[in-house]
Amino acid sequence: MQVVFQITSAASDAQLAMLGQLHNLLQYTDERKTRIAVEVVVHGQAWNLLLAAQNPLSEKVQVLHTRSVRFLICQNTLNSRQLPLEQLLPFVEVVPAAIAHLIERQQEGWAYIKC
Amino acid sequence: MQVVFQITSAASDAQLAMLGQLHNLLQYTDERKTRIAVEVVVHGQAWNLLLAAQNPLSEKVQVLHTRSVRFLICQNTLNSRQLPLEQLLPFVEVVPAAIAHLIERQQEGWAYIKC
Amino acid sequence: MQVVFQITSAASDAQLAMLGQLHNLLQYTDERKTRIAVEVVVHGQAWNLLLAAQNPLSEKVQVLHTRSVRFLICQNTLNSRQLPLEQLLPFVEVVPAAIAHLIERQQEGWAYIKC
């Protein structure tokens, strides 16, 4: 299983819902010993999910990272917010264009979940 | 044609919009005598769409069911709401994890529509 | 690359966000000399994005059209709003059922982005 999530919302209820879905998904694949690759593409308003400081959800994000979920932020989002990458959690990776990455993954056969 | 819809919203306007889309879709495929498989995965806040009682949309859901649309609820949603399956419409089916099901269907070649 | 966008929202912030994503996407593919086909399927509440008159976003839509983005409106949306096609930008194309088009494109291998 291969899946890319997209989140653009800054709202904590939307972000919490996604983190819960990721938790449930990994529990499902763990129980069935199914291999899964998971990426979360963060852009638009959702960058606060990845802040290193003053982020009430950072612990949950870190736990998912230790369970192999990759968190990707869009370079366009960093630029338009003048947000330095250093303010984000240290394991966050950058993609040049969020939408382009979502397209490429789908055309490589990954599933897509819009949050 | 094979498609899986995802709905997570409790709002009646979002639910009505989806039911209208399903109606239009089945009209399209009926007119063209095209075979279609349709599943609706209900999770998060959207469980009220499937209630057997005190549900103003239940009749529309039942009509779609008689036209072969399958309605699936997530076991995690039932658990977290302490919602007994008996309170839902009798034809509702259960999947262990909504997101896992959406991934599997896409990787089997089904299209995905997020509501 | 082949991608179909879906937009159903009348809100200008949602519409602007999508137009920005399209702009960023085309910049990405231009820089890499990657060929891309892009369609935007407009239905539900989002028809105002395609109005020819009194539409603050029409210029941005036209620029994207000149860069080969196709804008498609759903016939069901035109019917239910009693909206004449003549009130829309002249390059707008019509599909009989928005959801059916989104399914067909995905099953032809196009990626899908829900706005």
Notes on the protein architecture:
3 copies of one chain form a homotrimer. Chain A is α/β, with parallel strands linked by helices and 115 residues long. The first copy, chain A, has helices at residues 12-31, 58-66, 75-81, 98-107, and strands spanning 2-7, 37-42, 70-74, 93-95, 111-114. A 5-stranded parallel beta sheet of chain A has the order 4-3-2-1-5. The model of chain A has no long low-confidence stretch (mean pLDDT 98). The A-C interface holds A 6, 8, 44, 76, 96-100, 102-104, 106-107, 112, 114 and C 1-3, 17, 21-22, 24-25, 27-29, 109, 111-114.
Keywords for this structure?
globular, homotrimer, alpha/beta, 5-stranded parallel sheet, 115 residues, 5 strands
